[in-house]
């Protein structure tokens, strides 16, 4: 997406403090960090939410998150960090491009655990039924990325075959089937303080 800030970062159009890059992913220090070492990992392709990714791409991204989660806290002098994503607007996603956050944690940093982000009242008696629904859906072979073709066996093929009567030669031929994703750029060497990106972070 040409007007996406993170797409521009991944394409090298906007300068950042890059810590890692490969053919699929890009990692850099957050310019407005929540803590020392706050790092973002983004896919180079424009996906807004995690479930839009291809499974193999998601595996590569999680592998990178796993690697950086072991390295970054150690470098900044801690053994703890929060790892997560704001997956969608209601979850607090500011830039509509998928981003993993690694946020090192320190004693007295005044932060909260992830489970402290939301305190919704939940009827605990409904949880066993919910757990069963989730387990059932996980086994559903038709769970695929939104917009991706569902590759499942044709239901008709599972029906028992009936005896077929001899076919009368068709006089008409069947028609052939037709094939039917700002951070403003700045020079780190020329500026002694980071610019304000609050406007660029809005969707």
Can you put this structure into words, describing what you see?
The protein has 203 residues and is α+β, with helices and mostly antiparallel strands. The chain has a domain at 5-106: HIT-like (HIT family, subunit A, 2-Layer Sandwich), CATH 3.30.428.10. Helix content is 19%, strand content 13%. It has helices spanning 5-10, 55-75, 127-138, and strands at residues 18-21, 25-29, 39-43, 80-85, 100-105. It has a five-stranded antiparallel beta sheet, covered by helices on one side. The two termini are 13 Å apart. Mean pLDDT is 80; it is low at 150-158 and 170-203.
Named CATH topology of the domain at 5-106: HIT family, subunit A
Rough shape? globular
Low-confidence stretches: 150-158, 170-203
- Range of strand content: 5-15%
**Broad CATH class of the domain at 5-106:** Alpha Beta
Number of helical segments? 3
Mean pLDDT reading = 80
Strand order of the largest sheet: 1-2-3-5-4
If classified by CATH, what would the architecture of the domain at 5-106 be?
Answer: 2-Layer Sandwich
Kindly, what is the distance between the CA atoms of the first and last residues, rounded to a whole number of angstroms?
13 Å
Order of helices and strands: HEEEHEEH
The tally of beta strands, per DSSP, is: 5
Mind telling me the CATH superfamily name of the domain at 5-106?
Answer: HIT-like
Helix/sheet category? alpha+beta
What's the gyration radius in Å? 24 Å
Question: Can you summarize the main beta sheet?
Answer: 5 strands, antiparallel
- Report the helical percentage: 10-25%
């Amino acid at each position: 997406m040409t007007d996406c800030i993170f797409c521009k970062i991944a394409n090298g159009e906007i300068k950042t403090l890059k810590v890692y890059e490969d053919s699929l992913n890009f990692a850099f220090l957050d310019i407005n960090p929540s803590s020392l070492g706050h790092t973002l990992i983004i896919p180079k392709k424009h996906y807004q939410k995690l479930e839009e990714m291809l499974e193999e791409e998601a595996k590569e991204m999680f592998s990178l998150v796993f690697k950086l989660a072991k390295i970054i806290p150690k470098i900044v002098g801690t053994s703890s960090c929060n790892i997560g994503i704001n997956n969608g607007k209601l979850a607090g996603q500011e830039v509509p491009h998928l981003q993993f956050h690694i946020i090192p944690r320190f004693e007295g940093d005044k932060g909260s655990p992830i489970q402290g982000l939301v305190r919704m009242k939940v009827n605990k008696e409904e949880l066993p039924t919910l757990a069963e629904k989730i387990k059932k859906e996980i086994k559903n072979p038709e769970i695929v990325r939104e917009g991706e073709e569902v590759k499942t066996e044709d239901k008709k093929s599972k029906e028992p075959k009936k005896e077929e009567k001899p076919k009368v030669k068709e006089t008409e031929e069947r028609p052939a089937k037709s094939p039917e994703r700002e951070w403003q750029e700045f020079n780190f060497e020329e500026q002694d303080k980071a610019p304000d990106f609050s406007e660029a972070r809005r969707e």
